[in-house]
């Protein structure tokens, strides 16, 4: 520090970092961050928190809050369509023969199916266990033997899909694969021997049925859907049994690969599962110049793994979530085998996702389900957020992380834990009555109601106060609003407007791996906060640099009503910087 100016926040401080780095902070994956050199810490000329006590604005409650966004239930691949029994003469060419592991391995193609655009994404194979595919999707013990409207177990412990509880059940590959993967995840962490054994038994049963009902064609394994299907909302998606899905093909690779890695399988089973993974992987190396197929490229040279492949050009859905779930299989297979074609397919698929993000994104609203029909999808938007987060982990790509951030800002997860509170500054505020879904739907959005404004009310508080809230969500055509759920103003909504109105705590948080880079623009004041807890007042630093300066951050969240990033090194280590005032990875 310069001279005698050592002191507290109220006095100007100069910080110069030797060596041109923020305390020598190393970037995960190599390299260093540039200096926050010649930075000036100085007080703000006006009070940025006028009308709001610092004990509220600069502290975080220990609860409720949410360190990660809620994970939505796995999507039902058939929910928006109608299934029907195939005709009596329908024939499915099941392999109906023992598996020959050497044949499956030898049939894996050694070349790509066609040339496609690729930006050079690489798979990060040393991910911590918790960040790997499907680890966030355990099958709960309560659901290890499901029996509900759409799913139940047959006599061999294989999950079946049925249109209704009174209808006949069918083998449905995606349902079986996802149930099996959830059982594998639970097996890894379960300590009770009996429960652990049942989770493994269930996973093996799903894999066994897929192997039993495989179709061997074109030197690859395919997993058929034995019923007719018509998508209700997406024109052109109409199938007669048997049909195939690239989503199932990719997810099957994950199931077989992960089973083969478990300590509870025999060597004979391990060999079988590796052969099954080889057979499924081969299907993603077969182009659409024969049948069955699951992989093609569009007229611009982008690779697609089609959840709903259709032969007529341009009819396939080009579905985003189905393609990403299939990509997880490529990551698993590359991590296990090092096969360079798996990484190349992954690279091409992620190149497609990044290039088509502007078509997936629906700014300030729900994202679109697929590239063809572009129908906003409330049920899939949070899936897109969670899937992009995992793609960032799997590659370390900052550009994918940035796209993930944009989806959160467009429409964040909105249901709050019990006990959430919003702070209100002294002064006058406007409250709103809005037409939303009821309590059973968590006051979400519907097309018929469209968040119509029904009434307004002005309220004035002589001093700052707080109120319980149970929803924080984007209102159609507006910003982010809170729904007050108790007290004199229960049922009214108020707009988020830091520092006058904000939700106390940290919400919709994301941890990045590797660290990302925040750039403080030249000659711009940025006020950062190190928060206290439970009423303990934190500290603020207002910084300004004579040239753009970089700092690493490991986390992004909405903290006390503002999107912020947490700096991890240098003079601002532990401080949160407002996203609106800095660049993230140059954006």
Task: Please explain how this structure is put together.
By secondary structure, the protein is of the alpha+beta class. It is 25% helix and 22% strand. The chain contains 11 helices and 27 strands. The radius of gyration is 27 Å and the shape is globular. Mean pLDDT is 90; it is low at 1-44.
Descriptors for this entry?
alpha+beta, five-stranded antiparallel sheet, 25% helix, single chain, 587 residues
Fraction of residues in helices? 25-40%
The pLDDT mean sits at 90
Beta-strand fraction estimate: 15-25%
**Roughly how many Å is the radius of gyration?**
27 Å
Structural class: alpha+beta
- CA distance, first residue to last residue: 31 Å
> Major sheet: order of its strands?
18-17-16-13-19
Largest sheet: number of strands, sense, barrel closure: 5 strands, antiparallel
Summarize the structure.
The chain contains 11 helices and 27 strands. With 587 residues, it is of the alpha+beta class. The strands form 9 sheets. A 5-stranded antiparallel beta sheet has the order 18-17-16-13-19, with no helix packed on it. A 5-stranded antiparallel beta sheet has the order 26-25-24-20-27.
């Amino acid at each position: 520090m310069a001279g005698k100016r050592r002191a507290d926040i109220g006095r100007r401080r100069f910080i110069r970092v030797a060596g041109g780095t923020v305390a020598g902070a190393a970037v995960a994956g190599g390299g260093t961050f540039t200096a926050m050199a010649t930075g000036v810490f100085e007080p703000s000329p006006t009070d940025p928190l006028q009308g709001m006590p610092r004990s509220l604005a600069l502290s975080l409650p220990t609860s409720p809050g949410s360190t990660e966004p809620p994970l939505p239930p796995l999507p039902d691949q058939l929910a928006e369509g109608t299934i029907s029994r195939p005709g009596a003469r329908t024939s499915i060419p099941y392999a109906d023969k023992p598996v020959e592991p050497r044949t499956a391995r030898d049939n894996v193609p050694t070349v790509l199916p066609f040339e496609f655009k690729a930006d050079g994404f690489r798979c990060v194979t040393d991910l911590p266990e918790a960040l790997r595919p499907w680890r966030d999707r355990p099958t709960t013990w309560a659901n290890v033997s499901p029996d509900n409207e759409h799913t139940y177990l047959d006599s061999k412990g294989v999950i079946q899909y049925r249109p209704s509880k009174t209808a006949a059940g069918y083998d449905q590959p995606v349902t079986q694969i996802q149930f099996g993967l959830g059982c594998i995840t639970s097996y890894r962490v379960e300590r009770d021997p009996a429960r652990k054994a049942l989770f493994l038994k269930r996973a093996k049963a799903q894999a066994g049925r897929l192997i039993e009902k495989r179709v061997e064609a074109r030197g690859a394994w395919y997993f058929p859907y034995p019923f007719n299907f018509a998508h209700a909302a997406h024109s052109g998606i109409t199938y007669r049994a048997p049909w195939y899905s690239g989503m199932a093909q990719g997810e099957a690779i994950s199931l077989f690969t992960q089973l083969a890695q478990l300590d509870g399988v025999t060597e004979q089973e391990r060999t079988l599962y590796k052969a099954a993974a080889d057979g499924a992987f081969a299907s993603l190396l077969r182009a659409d110049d024969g049948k069955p197929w699951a992989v093609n490229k569009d007229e611009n040279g982008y690779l697609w793994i089609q959840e709903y492949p259709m032969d007529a050009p341009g009819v396939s859905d080009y579905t985003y979530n189905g393609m990403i779930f299939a990509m997880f299989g490529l990551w698993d297979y590359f991590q296990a085998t090092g096969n360079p074609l798996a990484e190349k397919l992954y690279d091409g698929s992620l190149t497609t996702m990044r290039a088509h993000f502007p078509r997936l994104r629906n700014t300030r609203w729900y994202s679109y389900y697929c590239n063809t029909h572009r129908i906003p999808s409330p049920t899939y938007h949070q899936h897109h957020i969670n899937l992009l987060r995992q793609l960032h982990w799997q590659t370390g790509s900052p550009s994918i992380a940035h796209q993930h951030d944009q989806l959160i800002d467009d429409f964040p997860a909105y249901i709050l834990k019990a006990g959430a509170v919003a702070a209100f500054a002294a002064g006058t505020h406007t409250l709103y009555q809005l037409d939303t879904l009821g309590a059973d739907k968590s006051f979400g959005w519907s097309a018929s109601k469209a968040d119509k404004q029904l009434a307004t009310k002005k309220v004035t508080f002589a001093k700052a106060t707080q109120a319980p809230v149970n929803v924080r969500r984007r209102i159609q055509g507006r910003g982010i609003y809170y729904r007050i759920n108790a007290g004199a103003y229960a049922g009214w909504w108020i707009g988020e407007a830091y520092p006058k109105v904000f939700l106390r705590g940290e919400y919709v948080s994301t941890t990045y791996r590797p660290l990302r880079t925040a750039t403080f623009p030249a000659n711009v004041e940025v006020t950062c906060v190190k928060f206290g807890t439970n009423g303990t007042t934190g500290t603020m630093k207002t910084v300004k640099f004579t040239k753009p300066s970089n700092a690493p951050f490991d986390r992004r969240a909405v903290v006390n009503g503002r999107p912020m990033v947490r700096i991890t090194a240098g003079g601002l280590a532990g401080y949160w910087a407002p996203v609106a005032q800095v660049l993230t990875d140059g954006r």
